[in-house]
């Protein structure tokens, strides 16, 4: 399962956003059932996406409130706006 969050950022806030996400990375990794994640950045378009992976739908749900708090903390500190947060079932995964 995956939680996908979409953000809007100004060009000057992108690097601050990256640093803030790095700062909470260990918090996310310690959450129940976390299987990693990634931050995607579109510098020119002023957009960012985080994708975090979870063992189960139950873990995704159980960590929802804690993830909301971290997401809001990062957005407030880095000057990002949260556009949306969505949950998905991972149907196909590939790569190492």
- Radius of gyration equals 13 Å
Our measurement of the CA-to-CA distance between the termini, rounded to an integer number of angstroms, reads 18 Å
On the 0 to 100 scale, the average pLDDT is 94
Largest beta-sheet details: 4 strands, antiparallel
Describe the structure.
This protein has 96 residues and is α+β, with helices and mostly antiparallel strands. Helices cover 39% and strands 33% of the residues. A hairpin with a 4-residue loop joins strand 2 and strand 3. Helix 1 packs antiparallel against helix 3. The two termini are 18 Å apart.
List keywords for this structure.
96 residues, 4-stranded antiparallel beta sheet
Summed up:
This protein has 96 residues and is α+β, with helices and mostly antiparallel strands.
What is this structure's SSE topology?
Layout: E1 2-8, H1 14-29, E2 34-42, E3 47-54, H2 57-62, H3 64-78, E4 81-88
Antiparallel strand pairs: 1-3, 1-4, 2-3
């Amino acid at each position: 399962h995956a939680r996908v969050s979409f953000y809007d950022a100004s060009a000057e806030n992108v690097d601050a956003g990256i640093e803030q996400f790095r700062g909470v990375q260990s918090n996310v990794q310690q959450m129940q059932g976390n299987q990693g994640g990634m931050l995607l950045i579109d510098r020119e378009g002023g957009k960012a996406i985080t994708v975090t992976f979870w063992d189960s739908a139950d873990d995704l749900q159980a960590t929802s409130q804690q993830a909301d708090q971290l997401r809001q903390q990062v957005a407030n500190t880095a000057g990002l706006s949260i556009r949306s947060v969505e949950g998905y079932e991972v149907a196909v995964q590939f790569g190492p």
